[in-house]
Automatic annotation (TrEMBL):
Gene3D superfamilies recorded: Glutaredoxin
Biological source species: Pleuronectes platessa
Location(s) in or outside the cell: Endoplasmic reticulum membrane
Record-level Gene Ontology MF annotations: protein disulfide isomerase activity
EC id: 5.3.4.1
Entry GO terms, CC: cell surface; endoplasmic reticulum membrane
Topological category with respect to the lipid bilayer: Single-pass membrane protein
InterPro entries hit by this protein: PDI_TMX3 (IPR052250), Thioredoxin-like_sf (IPR036249), Thioredoxin_domain (IPR013766)
The protein's name in its UniProt record: protein disulfide-isomerase
Domain Thioredoxin: 10-127
Domain of life: Eukaryota
């Protein structure tokens, strides 16, 4: 009996020590103790943050998987509310924050908080920024894994310098490779070398300096697929390119006939008018309406078309029905030429309205979960306000009485003087 107990205890202890070796708890001393060549993947959390707690098992899995792969990446976590020095150093602004630290540079993860996506980010950022593809097999393998990839083809050159610099900047977002000409399939036509080729949407595009401008800006603009499913993370990332995002909002399940038609229409316009619009718009469909509802401060009708300007939280809605390609083109052109008014935005009035809207939503969701708590949340400030009102009135009333008394005394003295 005792033996089994102690063996259980032993295995618990063993597990605990294993857990701690997968994920290290970091404090303010980290900046002194870390080695210059170390690579760290760090999660900053706050004890009260529920999203951070949800991430705990994922974080443990990531730690254990990287260990078993023999990865050079160390996995850590840090309570940002306790280790404020470290959090300040990493410029942690929200929780949880996932940041890779490599050769004194910090790479902030902004994607979905799933194991697969975080692992993908970890492999991409911890390795060489430009990975070389030495064989057709490797090229095909990369093609099968990535929807969007940029490949430098040719010998060392000034362009390669720019390509590497762009990779260093944008590695958080996309994939960079280099390959010799004979590694790429013959069907890929390259008129001259060196070249930068973008593979996406089942086809490829070759960079041209005259047409496309600076390489880094071109990569930043082109790193999204032609028409894709957008979640709130992708939406923010698209906003960072400075483009407007042209969206079709759809129901999550059981799309009606009209939704299917809208989606097809938007996809067709994105593809057929690529040349015309790809500089100004990213295209996609969204199945979660929360973000757009928040932006518009009302429930959006599904399905619908909307263009979002993420630089100023503004949005554009079509002025009439959009059922044909012509009508959708008119809508997009109207946004570009300014004939359709931008709504929303981040002006003071909008921000106050948004605050009220958000508070209302919060109260509603609280009411759904716990009506009693909601009642107290509402009743408590109300009770305090009433109490203060009461105090004020009472104080007012008593001072009024005092004044009255004084006045009557004065009048008394006046009358007494008069009588004199
Ligand atoms: C858009 O991309 C998808 C794959 O991502 C591809 O199947 C489709 O053919 C593309 N459409 C056009 C017109 O480029
Ligand atoms: C390459 O980088 C240099 C220095 O940043 C820049 O001046 C030049 O325009 C870039 N060239 C291309 C093709 O992007
Ligand atoms: C989007 O917002 C930015 C920042 O306020 C602004 O400069 C730009 O003109 C807006 N775009 C459109 C099409 O309204
Ligand atoms: C559309 O893109 C072109 C090229 O980048 C730019 O000059 C123009 O200002 C953009 N239009 C709007 C309304 O943003």
């Amino acid at each position: 009996m005792l033996d089994t107990r102690s063996s259980v205890l032993l295995s618990v202890l063993l597990c605990a020590s294993l857990v701690s070796s997968f994920v290290e708890e970091l404090d303010d001393s980290f900046m002194k103790t870390r080695g210059d060549d170390d690579i760290w993947l760090i999660k900053f959390y706050a004890p009260w943050c529920s999203f951070c707690k949800q991430l705990d098992p994922v974080w443990h899995q990531i730690g254990s998987e990287l260990k078993s792969l023999g990865s050079p990446v160390n996995v850590g976590k840090s309570d940002a509310t306790a280790n404020t020095g470290l959090a300040e150093e990493f410029r942690v602004r929200g929780y949880p924050a996932i940041i890779m630290w490599k050769k004194n540079v910090k790479y902030v993860y902004k994607g979905k908080r799933t194991k697969d996506e975080i692992m993908e980010f970890t492999h991409r950022v911890s390795g060489p920024f430009v990975r070389s593809l030495n064989s057709l097999q490797l090229f095909q393998h990369a093609m099968s894994r990535h929807d969007v990839m940029f490949v430098y083809v040719g010998a060392t050159s000034q362009l390669k310098g720019n390509f590497s610099a762009a990779a260093e900047h944008l590695i958080v977002h996309t994939n960079f490779f280099s390959a010799a000409r004979d590694v790429l399939p013959k069907v890929i036509a390259l008129t001259s070398l060196p070249a930068v080729v973008l593979f996406k949407d089942g086809t490829y595009f070759t960079y041209s300096e005259e047409r496309d401008g600076e390489l880094r800006l071109w990569i930043n603009r082109e790193r999204f697929p032609n028409f894709s499913k957008i979640d709130s993370y992708t939406l923010y990332a698209m906003g960072e390119t400075g483009k407007l995002v042209s969206l079709v909002l759809l129901e999550e399940k059981n799309m009606c006939e009209r939704s299917v038609r809208y989606k097809v229409l938007m996809e067709k316009v994105a593809a057929d008018y690529r040349e015309t619009y790809s500089r100004n718009f990213s295209f996609g469909f969204m199945e979660e309406s929360e973000y757009v509802n928040g932006l518009m401060m009302k429930d959006v009708v599904m399905p619908s078309f909307v263009v979002v300007n993420l630089s100023n939280d503004g949005y554009f809605l079509p002025q009439g029905p959009v059922d044909t390609e012509r009508q959708l083109l008119d809508f997009l052109n109207g946004v570009l030429d300014g004939s359709i008014q931008c709504q929303g935005g981040n002006g003071v009035v909008q921000r106050v309205t948004r605050l009220v809207y958000d508070s209302k939503l919060l109260l509603q969701s609280l009411y759904g979960k716990s009506p009693l708590l909601c009642f107290f949340l509402l009743a408590f400030p109300f009770a305090i306000a009433t109490f203060f009102c009461y105090l004020c009135c009472k104080a007012r009333a008593t001072t009024d009485e005092d004044e009255d008394e004084d006045a009557s005394q004065q009048s008394k003295t006046v009358t007494s003087k008069k009588s004199d």
